Amino acid sequence: FSIKGNGIGNGNGHCNGYSNGHGHCINGYSNGISASVSSNGVSHLPYSNGNTVHHSNSNGHIHTSPSFGDGRRRCFWYEEEIEDDLRWCFALNRILHTGVSEYQDIALIDTRPFGKALVIDGKMQSTEVDEFIYHESLVHPALVYHSQPKSAFIMGGGEGSTAREILRHKCVKKVVMCDIDKEVVDFCKKYLVVNREAFSNSRLELVINDARTELQSRQERFDVIIGDLADPVEGGPCYQLYTKSFYELVIKPKLNHQGIFVTQAGPAGVLTHTQVFSSIYNTLRQVFKHVMPYSAHVPSFADTWGWVMASDHPLTLEAGEIDDRIKQRIKGELQFLDGQTFLVAATLNKSVRKSLSKETHVYTEETARFIHGHGKASYQ
Amino acid sequence: FSIKGNGIGNGNGHCNGYSNGHGHCINGYSNGISASVSSNGVSHLPYSNGNTVHHSNSNGHIHTSPSFGDGRRRCFWYEEEIEDDLRWCFALNRILHTGVSEYQDIALIDTRPFGKALVIDGKMQSTEVDEFIYHESLVHPALVYHSQPKSAFIMGGGEGSTAREILRHKCVKKVVMCDIDKEVVDFCKKYLVVNREAFSNSRLELVINDARTELQSRQERFDVIIGDLADPVEGGPCYQLYTKSFYELVIKPKLNHQGIFVTQAGPAGVLTHTQVFSSIYNTLRQVFKHVMPYSAHVPSFADTWGWVMASDHPLTLEAGEIDDRIKQRIKGELQFLDGQTFLVAATLNKSVRKSLSKETHVYTEETARFIHGHGKASYQ
Amino acid sequence: FSIKGNGIGNGNGHCNGYSNGHGHCINGYSNGISASVSSNGVSHLPYSNGNTVHHSNSNGHIHTSPSFGDGRRRCFWYEEEIEDDLRWCFALNRILHTGVSEYQDIALIDTRPFGKALVIDGKMQSTEVDEFIYHESLVHPALVYHSQPKSAFIMGGGEGSTAREILRHKCVKKVVMCDIDKEVVDFCKKYLVVNREAFSNSRLELVINDARTELQSRQERFDVIIGDLADPVEGGPCYQLYTKSFYELVIKPKLNHQGIFVTQAGPAGVLTHTQVFSSIYNTLRQVFKHVMPYSAHVPSFADTWGWVMASDHPLTLEAGEIDDRIKQRIKGELQFLDGQTFLVAATLNKSVRKSLSKETHVYTEETARFIHGHGKASYQ
Amino acid sequence: FSIKGNGIGNGNGHCNGYSNGHGHCINGYSNGISASVSSNGVSHLPYSNGNTVHHSNSNGHIHTSPSFGDGRRRCFWYEEEIEDDLRWCFALNRILHTGVSEYQDIALIDTRPFGKALVIDGKMQSTEVDEFIYHESLVHPALVYHSQPKSAFIMGGGEGSTAREILRHKCVKKVVMCDIDKEVVDFCKKYLVVNREAFSNSRLELVINDARTELQSRQERFDVIIGDLADPVEGGPCYQLYTKSFYELVIKPKLNHQGIFVTQAGPAGVLTHTQVFSSIYNTLRQVFKHVMPYSAHVPSFADTWGWVMASDHPLTLEAGEIDDRIKQRIKGELQFLDGQTFLVAATLNKSVRKSLSKETHVYTEETARFIHGHGKASYQ
Questions:
Q1: What integer pLDDT is reported at residue D101 of this predicted model?
Q2: Chain B CB contacts of C274 below 8 Å
């Protein structure tokens, strides 16, 4: 018998290890949990700072004794409403931390199927076991396609994972991360151990501000600008950062020559890509000469996700060239992306491709399209 | 903004142990949380050791700022399978503590509709806001109907609430509580602050043992024996403690002259009373001269619950006499029971009454009836 | 193997009406299904027009072959949100019929735990296996306490069950049922076979109108007026029919000398009775000389339910007198109520009794109290 | 107000009233419902036999009046347990038909997010809005890579969709479909209108038998053999049809020179591909010279799905060649697949690719791997 106030539970004084407390515990997103190897043979190195990550195991221990709920019906659940007629539910081990900001609710939870997960306003933001798919896809293509990126600006990104991935590029000298919600940033700094190093990296400048205001007030331009914003949700503040005028008047003037812009672009599945993905793509086509939509299935989002990269400089690389640049520039090994994977991600299936080619909608402040509470979301 | 790692969350500072609290909090089931007054005007004094108890409030603070999930769709749930085709789901604030014993899983959770709740093997055992109904009903009638109870034996009862209620009787000199699961007892001693005083009361003798073995090995007899056992669940160990032979050969010989036996007796609703209630009643009728079934609706069990009191001594008191004895003998005020309430609880509705009068089933080891995972349960 | 488009599904061949089933079935709420006897030994005669009713069986057949989903994890569910943090979920066999009116959504479903159930706006109205508790409690006390009731007026009651129970009183010559929602009434006439006879009874006058308008426009007075209205829900139309002025200015003038008014009064559990029950009780106390609150646990509502009876004539009967009147006046046998049961229902437990005695709130149009989507509800 | 027994319900013919039955209803998978155009701009022609298909609309009517549950909280749900700690829940409009066979439960339901869906043993088999992804991917690559396929054998496939897709190939003269469960086949013939034409096609030979027995007993060989079997589920019969010896001793001898075998191969997502996909791939590598794994995200399965194609003849075609063959050979237009899409599907991402290259497990009867109730499944 083990009282798990500690193991799963709570902190205290000088607990090191995995106590989710604080005191002096210092390492690990996973709160210092070493963990059983994921059953799929994937090692998620960057996420867990050198620890392998648990997938199916309740608290990361290799149990010799039974652990809570093993082999029994689950009774604790996290339930996400993807659409009002579609739910996605994960068995819960623990609700690790919760917080409330001026803008949103935030929680760090420990789920059985996806490990630790960051939830904002009832929407899954990222999970321990597959956030690498989202963040590698968001960050590395733009930086790799750029011939020599030295500076990057992140709109949103308060979780810290986007900054973490950018900082793996040795050539990048400066990253500005601009998120509007100080509390989310503080929460993530405190609890997402996997990003702790990134948050304290001297190349990172962290700003709490509205992204538009911040960009407009700055003198410098950037090699890469990354939109890690909430989806355009009705009533949310972010949809204004997906409009043609914003791209034209705010983003483009702040890109250096040969600069590249990339944004997360919502669900891109066969059934969901017309919610916002096709429209973001078409809007960027109005503003940039070269626009490259791409997508990948993110399991914890229960959908294929989309990103769009755009530039006035041609975006053409062979798989081999991509692999070479990844090898030369990036610290550590990528888990999801390589040259072949990216070129495949950028080749949409017939159904989505046809649909994008016919899209005529352009985002303006008057004609925004919105999305129901879907996955990657929130702050800016 | 408040990071609730503290309030809801986890310890820090010098908090040792599992106190989900702050700094130096040392007492309180509610983990040192004071709390807003329940919206129903009921004050639950005994449960919270002098603190009023929250009902609808997430963590007991009187918020001036919004608290997590207020006004939003709930995303964390506790789900109980009452039958395999019937579920009862409570929004969760926190999973406070979890543990595993040789026999069962145990958890202390903080729910929105019912406050803190003890869960064993996925079954709700008792909740902060209504456990007084179950425990007052289990304990006080037998003790009050006895002319002068000095000793009591509890079969099961590891949660400690049954002992707590018995110890309110000033005339009781000795309480033996015998539970088979040391870990459950340790868990409850540690986390159920409301019962902490009872656990350390010098009149309480706590034994870890099988109730049958313990009773048989003892020389002394008791004025009152209380069955606070798990329901007779298929495959569970407890159904053998509901049989005619057990009542005849083990219980009865250990009752003093005029002694009274009482047992929880499972669901007693119009639709559920034939699962086990009517049969326990009928079984006791084979063994004792006077048998008194009674019931009350326990909201968190989603059903009317049943108890059966039995004795060879007549069980007859007027409402006024009951009230007088309660006043004379019991420390503090009861919340649910008084003379009138008990006489009503012991007057079953026509549908249940008819059904009980026709019951012919008798519990033996060969002919046990079982119940699906329903409410009050577990250890012995 | 049986394709159950038939068995579970609905009609075919010459089946007219909604008979789920077979050939020439013509009567029965249960749609002509004979059925296995309920496991609790209760026979629900009036509900099923002479057929016994299934409880745990999926479609009323005594299967010799396995039936859908037997012994397997359930995958179809009806989910009711009792509060926004409390859910009650029934495994579904079928969604039998659905409809939409100007005011509300309506559905007749076949559930595993409670048999067929009428759902309006996502709230359980009544279920095959326990509606007798609600309707016997609503109707018979007022009619029995009246020395010789000849006429009754129902506010709401579109389901038809209230009328059905009234019509069992041989002395009643005229029942006026006034519901605002024609579609609900038509739906129930069509699909609730158990009430078909009542709907076509010549003593019943059915009016589609607002209850207030109807009462005010009528010349005659009634011996009994019954409020079978929706709970006072925020934004709903019904809360105005729970106010002091309504009782004083509309109800009272339409009661004959010695007339009795009774209304359903919302949840009356230990944790829920202050939502509206205590206030409806206190409001009626301002208007009538004699007011009698009573309650009973209704399993499918997951709560104890309340009713309040009021008159300027004393309301005092012994259990034996009640039994005599039931025997003399009512056709068939009641399942839930008899003299003892009613007197018990009218004796509230200590916790609720205290709370009612202290209630000071009076319903006015300005100071209404509201209830979350709880059980018995809807139209008027 | 519209009573939707019809609209949502089913057939009609001479059935009057709302009987969801059949009587003489004769047309339509969608039960004669035409339907609103899917919101994503995809037209699903083949599935609905010339009717466009609804996606977000409750019953396919273009409502001028509100429809059931619009704008309200959903209360009817289909819940699938993907893993025991992961659920996927669709709001339900109707449970259209249910049946029970010797082997399994079967249901046709109408869901809000995915339209009509076939469910076997609580597992989603295919849905109206995205089954084309699964079935185009299963069928067309093997047939297109073959230089001139004249005959095909389907193991399983009782739903009929696999046969339907094969029969679109003009060069195919004979299709043998061999499913073990007559009742499933009968159910699908009766209710899946979209496949009705395929079921009555004279080029189709339908056999009820075990696939192994059937193949072994036949003299002829086939150009293409397709495994549309249940996943290898513990206790299920199908895992023996994924073994090395089966491929070697049963499949291979029945393939013509240049013959191609293809099988569905379970989940192939980043987190799930090692459940069975990598092992099926590796097993086929032991038996065939050329093995081509490929995958695509199937939204209603909540995962990326995998297939493996294998042959002793080289599998190499350019995108343009694939497009040419599709155009020449296939009747109508494919929705999901073209040359580019297939080549992308056959290029796995880095994470999965690495993992497959390292896979050493080989399916034998002694060393099978199993899968929890995941998606495409079931009979044969």
A1: 84
A2: 39-41
Whole-number Å distance between alpha carbons of A246 and A248? 5
Question: Helix D131-145 to helix D319-329 angle, to the nearest 10 degrees?
Answer: 100
pLDDT confidence of residue C39: 30
Q: Using pLDDT thresholds of 50, 70 and 90, give the confidence band for residue A33.
A: very low
Partners of B91 on chain C (C-beta within 8 Å) are 84-86
Among A328-342, B47-61, B167-181, the least confident range:
B47-61
Contact residues for D309 (Cβ-Cβ < 8 A; gap 6+): D141, D142, D145, D260, D261, D262, D291, D292, D293, D294, D315
| pLDDT tens per residue across span C178-191 | 999 999 999 999 99
**Paired sense of beta strands D290-298 and D303-311, if any:** antiparallel
Angle at B303 between CA B300 and CA B308, to 5 degrees: 110
B77 - beta bridge partners? A77, B91
Which of A282-291, C93-102, C137-146, C332-341 is predicted least confidently? C93-102
pLDDT of residue B32: 27
Distance in angstroms (rounded) separating the CA atoms of residues C186 and D3 = 10
CA C337 and chain centroid, separation: 15
CA distance D290 to A120: 47
Q: Which residue has tokens 């009861």?
A: B334
* Over residues D298-315, mean pLDDT: 98
Chain C: closest CA distance from residue B114 (Å): 9
For B:94-133, CB contacts with C below 8 A are 111-113, 129-130, 133
ipTM of the complex: 0.84
The Cα angle at residue D258 between residues D253 and D262, in degrees rounded to 5 = 70
B110 assigned to active site: no
Structure confidence at residue B19 (pLDDT) = 26
CB D7 within 8 A of CB C4: no
| Interface contact flag, C12 D8, Cβ < 8 Å | no
pLDDT of residue A49: 34
The answer to whether the Cβ–Cβ distance between B91 and C85 falls below 8 Å is yes
Say which DSSP state C280 is in: H
D348-378: b (≥16 Cβ within 10 Å) or e: bbbbbbebbeebebbbeeeebbebbbbbbbb
Q: What is the DSSP letter of C93?
A: E
Query: Where in chain C does DSSP place strands (E)?
Result: 2-3, 76-83, 86-100, 105-111, 115-120, 123-127, 151-156, 174-179, 204-208, 222-228, 255-267, 290-298, 303-311
Domains of chain A: 5-127 (2.30.140.10), 131-358 (3.40.50.150)
Q: Which of B255, B244, B253, B258 is nearest to B287 (CA)?
A: B244
Q: How many of the other CB atoms lie within 10 Å of CB of C210?
A: 17
Of residues D228, D231, D303, D323, which has the active-site annotation? D228
Task: Specify the amino acid at residue C53.
Answer: V
Q: Which of B273, B296, B351 comes nearest C335 by C-beta?
A: B351
For all residues of chain C together, what is the average pLDDT? 82
A151-156/B174-179 β-pairing: unpaired
| Cα(D220)–Cα(D212) distance, integer angstroms | 14
pLDDT at C365: 84
* pLDDT tens digits, one per residue of D110-160: 999 999 999 988 889 999 999 999 999 999 999 999 999 999 999 999 999
State the pairing for strand pair C204-208/C174-179.
parallel
The pLDDT of residue A82 is 92
